[in-house]
Amino acid sequence: MSQSDVAGHVGRSRAGRDSGTRAAAIALLALGAALLAVVAVTTPWRPLGPDAPDVHAEPALDFTRAQLDRADAFDAATSPPGYLSLALTLLIGGVLVLTPVGARLIGRLRGPWWIKAIIGLLGVYVVSLVLRWPLGMWMEGVLRDYGLSTQTWGSWSADRLKNFALQIVLSGIAVLVIVALARKWPRAWWIPASVGAFALTVVVSFAYPVVVEPMFNNFTPLPAGQLRTDLLAMAQRDGVPVKDVLVADASRRTTALNAYVSGFGATRRIVVYDTLVSQPEQEVELVVAHELGHAKNDDVLYGTLVGALGAAAGTCLLFLVFQALRRRAGVSSAGDPRAVALLVGLISLGTVLSGPAQNVVSRQIEARADAHALDLTHDSATFIAMQKSLALRNISDLSPSALDYMLYASHPSTAERIAMARSWARRGGVPRP
Fold first, then answer.
1. How far is the C-alpha of 299 from the C-alpha of 365, rounded, in Å?
2. Cα–Cα distance for residue pair 291/387, rounded to 1 Å
3. Fewest CB atoms within 10 Å of the CB: 8, 59, 135, 393?
4. In the predicted model, is pLDDT for residue 310 greater than 60?
5. CB neighbours of 80 closer than 8 A, spacing ≥ 6?
C-alpha cells in the first residue's frame, strides 16, 4: 500500500468517526430537548398554584430544641459514612475513567471477549462491594444506635448481596450489550444502544413491583376492616383505580414509617409499611392520600418516560465521552472487552452527577402529591401532625444543609411540607393549624 493509500485510509477512517460523533451529538441534542420539554410540561413547579401565599419554612416553630438537636446529631453520625461512600464512588469512577488501570487488569484475562468482559465487570463491582462493606456496616451501626434498624447482620448482609446481584444483572446487561454492539457497529453502536436503554427502562419500571420488590419484602393485602374500607372508599372518591392496598413487612428491617406507589397499569398498587398501619387512622389516610396523588397524576408513568428519555440521551452522551476518553483509559474502541472498565466508570459517575437534577424534579412531584392529599382530605391540621410524627419517628433531617439537600433530598424537607400545608390553609381561609 502506497503512502497516499495509507493517508486516504486514515482520512476515511477519521471521517467515519467524525460523522458518527456528529450524528450522536445531534441525537443527544434532540433527545435532550425532548427530555427537557417533558420535564418542563409534567413537573408541577407551583404545586399549590400561583395564588398560594408564601409561608416560610421554620423548623423551630414545630419542633423543640431537643428534637432539633437529636436530628442534627443523627445527621452528624450518618454523614461521615454517607459522604465517604460518595467519595469512594467518585474515586473508583475517576480511576476507571482517567487511568488505564482497569483496562490493563482486564487485558491480562484469557478467553473469548465475552468471558473477559463478564469477568472484568464482576471484578470492578466486587472490588467496589468489598470497599463499601465497612462503610455500610458503619451506617447500619448508627441506625441501630438510634433504633431505626431491626435487622440482624445476616438479613442485612442478605439485602446487600441482593442489591449487588440486581446491580450486576442490570449493569451487566447494559455494558455487555454495548460491547457486543460496538464489535458489530464500531461507529454507530450508540443507535441500537439508545433504543435498548429506552426499552429496558420501560420494562424494568413495569416489572419492578412484581419481580424486584418481592425479593426484599413480603406483601399481603390490607386486612378487611374499617381502615381498608375507608382507604378504598377514598380512592374511589378520588377517581383513582387502585388494584389493591398492600402491607409490606418492613418491620423486620426498620422502625421507620413509609408508603409508596409503584408500577402502572396492571401492576399499579399502593403499599404501606406495617409500621404505618398501627398509627392513627387519620394519619394513615393522609399518607395514602399522598400516594393517591401520585397515582392520579400518573407520576410513575411520566417518571418512566422521563427516565427512558434520560437513558437514551445518556447513552448518546456515553458514546461521545467514551470517544474523548478512550485513549486515556487505554482502550481503542468500545468493542474491546477492556472497555468494560471505562464504561462502568462513566455510568457510575453519570449516575452520581445526574442525581441533583433528578432530586429537583422529584421534590416538586412530591409537593404536588402533598397538595393532592390536602385537597382530598381538607385536613391541614392532621397533615401537619402526621408530618411531625413521620419526621420524629424516621429522625428526618429537620434543617438539611444546602449540600445534603442537593445530593440526597428527593422530598421537600419536613419544614417545607408543613409550610405548604399552612399556605394551603391560608389560601382556603382555614385557621392557621
1. 8
2. 14
3. 8
4. yes
5. 138
